[in-house]
Give the backbone structure.
Amino acid sequence: MTTSPLLRVTGLHKSFGRDPVLKGIDLDVAPGDRIAILGASGSGKSTLLRCLNFMELPTAGRVELAGRAIGTERKRRDGSTEIAYPEAELTQVRQRVGMVFQQFNLFPHMTAIANVMEGLRTVRGMPREEAQARAMEQLRRVGLAEKADHYPSRLSGGQKQRVAIARALAMEPELLLFDEPTSALDPELVGEVLGVIRALAQEGRTMLLVTHEIGFAYHYANRVLFIADGVIHEAGTPDEVLKHPKQARTQAFLASHNEFTF
Ligand SMILES: Nc1ncnc2c1ncn2[C@@H]1O[C@H](COP(=O)(O)OP(=O)(O)O)[C@@H](O)[C@H]1O
Ligand SMILES: [Mg+2]
């Protein structure tokens, strides 16, 4: 039996001005997939994730979520087609595709629980008490219930990132995107964040994770993508890509990350 993809990306291109960054990404994400994305710095990993929750608009290509194409195709005067992305539709998509950033992106003037509640209140219009209860539940789940009233400045990097994960989870996203969630952390704080991500993986959540933690990717992911030159240069199981890479560039990348142990 085949399950239809939760996310389908077809011919995704993204340029900034005249600089092409993504040059045709094709990717199907099935429900429950845990996909690790590797690639050199500047290869377009963040841009890819940002296009998937439409913080950046693709220059070309389509993104389908649960079988429905996002945006509306329309004809230009010259007969060519372009895709319009109405903001109301993108607001919906961003609730369904949650994102966790390298730099946490918490609001510094809001407590942990207020950060988690913010989207529920402003985007969902959820009543305060209900939002508070939902936010508390998510903080509990990442082990931070007792820090609910702390401001980010009083939290460690690992705690901040767990609040950011709770904030993403509060919106009940169908798909979670993690952009190097442990890269800004002191080494001793990496484990607590990876522990939360591992627990989410075990729940069967669908996730895309950009990471340089190769050992974690090996154990966590069911598929691994290596991005180079704006395309998926190599893809496969963790064994195929991380232990037996076929492409010279994948081999070179992994050799430069030789500190990992499986
Ligand atoms: N908003 C932007 N405007 C212009 N160039 C950008 C922007 N975002 C990313 N880039 C460029 O796109 C390329 C890929 O960046 P990025 O997706 O952040 O790579 P990675 O996450 O793999 O390190 C880089 O050359 C970067 O400078
Ligand atoms: Mg990046």
Remarks:
- The CA atoms of residues 228 and 249 lie 8 Å apart.
- Residues 16, 21, 39, 41-47 surround adenosine-5'-diphosphate (ligand 1) (CB under 6 Å).
- The domain at 7-255 is CATH 3.40.50.300 (Rossmann fold).
- The chain has a mean pLDDT of 95.
